[in-house]
Amino acid sequence: MMLVRLNMRMALAALCAGVLLVTFYWGRCGDTAHRPIGSVLSNSLTQQETSEIECSINGEYSVACRRDRDQVYVPFSFIHKYFEIYGKLTTVDGVEKFEWSHSYSKVYHPKKKYDPRGTFTTFENYNVEVRDRVKCISGIEGVPVSTQWEPRGYFYPTQIAQFGLAHYSKNITEPPPRIRIIDDGEKFLEKWIVSKDAVLNREFDSELNTNVLSFSTSDHASSQVWLKLNITQDFVLSINLQLKLNSTMTVILQNKDKKETVYLHYITSNQLIYAQDDHIYYGIGVDQKWRQLTRDLIIDMQKGWALQDRPKRKSPRNKFKISGIILSGSGRLGEVRVQSSAHPAHFYAAARWLVAEQRARGGWPVPARRRVAPGVPDLRPGWHSAMSQGHAISVLARAYHRSGEARYLRAARRALRLLGVPAGAGGVRALWMDRYVWYEEYPTKPPLFVLNGFIYTLLGLYDLHVIEGENSVSLAKKMFDDGMLSLKTLLPLFDTGSGSFYDLRHFTLGVSPNIARWDYHATHVNQLYLLAGLDPDPILINTAKRWEGYMQGKRAAHN
After folding, report:
1. Is the dihedral of CA 78, 80, 81, 85 positive or negative?
2. What residues are paired with 322 via a beta bridge?
3. How deeply is 460 buried, as exposed, middle or buried, from its count of CB atoms within 10 A (0-12, 13-18, 19+)?
4. Cβ(241)–Cβ(330) below 8 Å
5. How far apart (Å, rounded) are the C-alpha atoms in residues 401 and 443?
6. Which of 159, 170, 157 shows the shortest CA–CA distance to 133?
7. Is the pTM of this model over 0.90?
8. Count of CB atoms within 10 A of residue 332's CB?
């Protein structure tokens, strides 16, 4: 328990504002385990006799505290929960101390003006595919499948766009990947092992304009073509693959102590993922065409474990190796390589999905029911999100900038259409006081005016405007300007005096406020700092600074 020194005559509410002596007694602080009392009590406590005393909390319940004469020591585990305070033990230069904080999130101050051709906000820190609400990365589309509101899994446009933006940003901030070419059909040729009743040939493929491997095995279980490997550290497999029906490519991952072997099977099927014991199956489609398969093998293994409710493993990349590839059935393959990362491939997978799945109205419908707030009807499958539209525009604008392919620019411009359609007509546009436009992340009736999703939409509009040409007069620019006027007008309504509101449901629904938890509040602050670099209006930078102060325990003045 952690103990906090408090004069008995002071009100309990002053616990988090006074100068507090923090020591440990029992329990936990946040997520940090603490030592027993004998090893951590301060000298002032060990030299004096203390006794247990009951602390009555607002007459509602009791907490076991410690008393030393006229001082009472309250468990920090209680303070943490009651006042949402955070702390942990640290050791600096051999000296142990306790770090106290009012927020668990971090603010990122932009080092330069936001550039739509560069990283997207702070998304280089995002790892979308490792999220629990990502069921797996589809073997066909190469994008995440979400279970956020539907356990069976579905394609969530916002999540797919975030996946693409994260990899685009990482490609800029990270060093070039390590690449090991296994077999390219020309310069690098591996010695594949062929069983007696299997066939392996090298031949020229006119579609790929290079030499490839052609293989065929019999129906016998022992009939196969395989390659022995011993690759550690890097686990992103990239391969050109063409499989005929009932054919499989299997990648073998082995624990370095050889006590565990996992088989990743990539099969001609439309089934998303299936796992049984140490065998994990991903469908890569049945169309029998050439496809470039890029798979993070560790992610594929972890998602298979999660499907079987196995506990998470710590640092599996340090404990496994790629020990082999097995081919069965018939097909062809080429350009086999293992890399430390393949960010461009993942980014373009997201961009291609957005182009392919965009509907005639320019949107990407969400195929899952969403219950947003009591008092408003659920969003039925097929609803649209302004945040999805904005994120998608950010992806497509960058894809056009990097590739020059006009299809990405056309798709980004089409995505503007729904931003002008009222939510009641299937779009995402709402009005505050019949005047100020708002692009709704969740287009409910009445509207909620979610802040972070709205700002992300504004960034998408800004991205498209800049990529089109900053000197041009475009629909994206007008929509951005209209949104910025709304943001600067409504921003004070999101200020709680000690944090920020996630949305404005307390205005539109007349219900209790929906206070943003600290990670969302930090997102608000990060977004405002970024926008302050684009717009000189002082309300943006002043609000960002004030809200950052809230994360350090500062509060608005009171009467």
Report:
1. positive
2. 231, 253
3. buried
4. no
5. 30
6. 159
7. no
8. 20
270 vs 282: CA distance, rounded Å: 8
Say how many residues make up the chain: 559
- DSSP letter assigned to residue 494: G
Beta strand spans in 139-272 (E): 144-146, 179-183, 193-194, 199-205, 210-216, 225-232, 236-243, 248-255, 261-267
Would you state the structure tokens that stand for residue 300, as one six-digit string?
A: 């594929």
Rounded to a whole number, what is the distance in angstroms from the first to the last CA of the chain?
36
Contact indicator for 53, 66 with CB cutoff of 8 Å: yes
Measured CA to CA, the distance from residue 365 to residue 356 in angstroms comes to: 13
Where helices occur in 377-496 by DSSP H, the ranges are 386-403, 406-414, 451-468, 475-490
Q: For 243-267, how does the pLDDT look when each residue is reduced to its tens digit (9 = 90+)? A: 999 999 999 999 988 789 999 999 9
**DSSP-derived pairing of the beta strands 210-216 and 330-339:** antiparallel
**Exposure on the CB side of residue 558, measured as CA atoms within 13 A:** 5
| Bond preceding residue 374 cis, omega within 30 of 0 | no
- Which residues, other chains included, contact 5 with Cβ-Cβ below 8 Å and sequence gap of 6+? 20, 21, 23, 71, 73
Taking the domains of the chain in order of start, what are their residue ranges? 2-101, 123-134+345-550, 179-340
CA dihedral over 204, 209, 213, 214, signed as positive or negative: negative
For residues 365 and 146, the answer to whether their CB atoms sit within 8 Å is: no
- Rg, the chain, Cα only: 28
Tell me the fold of 179-340: Jelly Rolls (2.60.120)
Is 17 strand, coil or helix?
coil
What are 361-415's pLDDT values in tens digits? 999 999 999 999 998 999 999 999 999 999 999 999 999 999 999 999 999 999 9
